[in-house]
Prior knowledge:
Elements: H1 3-19, H2 31-38, H3 42-54, E1 58-61, E2 65-68, H4 76-80, H5 85-106, H6 112-127, H7 132-149, H8 153-162, H9 179-201, H10 205-227
Antiparallel strand pairs: 1-2
Amino acid sequence: MSPNLTANLVGHLRERITSGDLAPGDKLPSESELMAAHGVSRTVVREAITRLQAEGLVHTRRGAGSFALTPPADDPAAASAPRTLDERRHLLAFRMGVETEAAARAAGRTDPATRASLTGALAALRAAGSHPGQAMTSDYEFHLAIARASGNPYFVDAVERFGPALITMPRRRLTAAARAEHTMRLERVAAEHESILAAITSGDPQAAAAAMRTHLVNSLHRLETEANGG
């Protein structure tokens, strides 16, 4: 397997995703199509997809294929994936209602396995470094763990419906030009997650709800700042 062939294919697919040519929820070409179009082996294609998965740019479902950022088009999550600024605002408003209550209910209910999931997702977020797509996936896993810890299956359904698209990450954050800003933003988000985790593990529902709401309000502020060119 040629490293150059793999890197070239990764670069091509990454560009299609970050440019919007492959929108959230769009299915990537099949292995056979990629092999024919790029003159590479199946091994090269699979290695390229694995690298894109590691960056958090591709979501793969067994038997269905690989998709850009979010679940497949026949999954309800794809139809719900926010694409415009207004849709992202609406999603954050929805999350404030659902996730503040989920955090409150999770407080004091966390067992060692749940705490390990939350701590692991937080560590993965901090380790994401210059990979915004990977950070988005870790961010999502943290919020999903809280929904599960709430003990309410409807909260879990609400979070799982969106998949990683739950995290309102504008596409420009995936570009190389935005990587420098990403590290600073990542640390702020990680610190907010840490406050949520501390409140949940302390068993204080009000503090957990407040920490989650603060995080989501800050997420909305970050979204508006970026939309205004800040």
